[in-house]
């Protein structure tokens, strides 16, 4: 019986020593009583904002139209109007006058965006080289959308053989 009483007393002392009600968590010797004056408690909060995924789609391809090639020259498409100009030994054909490229962006309501258009049009065969023209690109979505056009210029070597030539350029959009 004596051992049972000793064990019960030891358990009670252990409970009292480690119980939050009796703990001296501010180390001032008062056993954690309710009259602690140097204690403050606050609750922190966390927040997360999830944006809609941003999407980018070409809605119209950049088309330099149909031309004839004698001596070397250039063909260009205006970004804003889509109008074509030719220079040097390149002749413009009315069968296809060309058009600027068009893109559509969608995403988070009225969010700021960064649009980057690669400077070069690559992948052409036959010695053709090209550059893009992209100015006044959108910096913010209107509602959930924005659109923009891309123009460009191709250098046409002398006596370029008849055929269809294709190239590619990159366009990227992201939230800043």
Helical percentage:
under 10%
CATH topology of the largest domain: Immunoglobulin-like
Cα separation of the termini: 76 Å
Oligomer: single chain
Uncertain runs are: 1-19
Largest sheet geometry: 7 strands, antiparallel
Question: Mean pLDDT across all residues, rounded?
Answer: 86
Task: Explain this structure.
The chain has 176 residues and is mainly beta. It has two domains: 1-46, no CATH class; 55-174, Immunoglobulin-like (Sandwich). It has one helix at 2-18, and strands at residues 55-60, 67-77, 84-92, 101-106, 114-117, 120-121, 129-133, 145-156, 171-174. Strands 1, 2, 3, 4, 6, 7 and 8 form a seven-stranded antiparallel beta sheet that branches. A two-stranded antiparallel ribbon has the order 5-9. β2 (67-77) and β3 form a beta hairpin. It is rod-shaped.
């Amino acid at each position: 019986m004596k051992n049972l009483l000793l064990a019960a007393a030891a358990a009670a002392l252990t409970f009292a020593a480690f119980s939050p009600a009796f703990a001296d968590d501010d180390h001032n010797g008062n056993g954690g009583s309710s009259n602690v004056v140097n204690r403050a408690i606050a609750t922190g909060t966390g927040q997360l904002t999830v944006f809609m995924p941003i999407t980018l789609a070409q809605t119209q391809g950049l088309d330099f139209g149909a031309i004839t090639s004698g001596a070397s020259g250039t063909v260009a498409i205006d970004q804003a109007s889509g109008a074509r100009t030719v220079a040097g030994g390149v002749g413009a054909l009315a069968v296809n006058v060309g058009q600027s490229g068009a893109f559509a962006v969608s995403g988070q309501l009225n969010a700021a965006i960064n649009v980057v258009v690669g400077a070069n049009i690559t992948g052409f065969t036959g010695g053709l080289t090209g550059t893009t023209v992209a100015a006044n690109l959108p910096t913010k979505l209107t509602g959930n959308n924005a659109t923009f056009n891309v123009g460009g210029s191709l250098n046409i070597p002398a006596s370029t053989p008849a055929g269809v030539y294709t190239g590619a350029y990159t366009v990227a959009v992201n939230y800043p």
